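The records we work with from here on pair a chain with its fold. Taken together, the tokens spell out the fold as the letters spell out the chain. To see the layout at work, look at the sequence and tokens printed below.
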Amino acid sequence: MKKSSLLLVVLLTGAIGLTACGKKETNYTTTQMVDAIVAQLKAEEPNRPVTDDIRKQIEESLTLNLAVAETARKENIGEDETTKALMQAQAAQILASQYFSKKMANYKPTDDELKKIYDDEVKKVNKIAATAGKEYNLRHILVATEAEAKEIEAKLKAGTKFEELAKLSKDTASAAKGGNLGWSSLSAFVPEFTEAASKLKSGEYSLPVKTQFGYHVIQLIEEPRMIKGASSQAAPQIPPFEQVKSQILELAKSKHLQEIQASFKKSATTTTAKPEEKK
């Protein structure tokens, strides 16, 4: 079993044990609970069989947790706020896992969608190959907001010298040198910066580029040159779409899951749940 599956088993059996410490709403048999865990494992990894040995391990772990939970309940462990909070967190984790599983099960990308992902990946590979062994003489101006970056861009268009505007840069080290970053491989920069810099021609500057550091206006001072001692690389041998379609599907699933998670991260707020009132 993969580490992710083993972790899932631990979480599920542990969560069931924790839940058993509290008030029981439905009495499921051990077999029913094992069946539920096995079904979740199969949904997560349909091509990986759950053997009798694995099922036995799940049953043994679950049985132990249930036995301990029963003793804990008799000793009134589970009535304190910490344990209640842990049970609520475990329940939320299981519900979230089920939600993602159902969403992913319904995700069926078309061949056209997969081909687009493949084409995008091919472009990335070719771009990396095209810049390999080269170094770029760049300078930039880093500011906190997009509005500031657009103002910098407008002033450059109006004729203000780059080195003058570079004095406004948050990157004080390069600001002291007119924004100059010196000769460097593009691999030294974050992806968004690299993407923009790789498209520039000598003397050109970019539109505002957002990275984790803020907003950049980047200029390529002169044409790239080969790194001393480096040799030009041959074009990468990229397999045809049909040959890697299954890998592209997995990549598509990963991207889709990340998009779902990102949508929740944008809207999620930290809330403090109130304990359930006793009637």
In short: Residues 1-8, 270-279 have pLDDT under 50 and may be disordered.
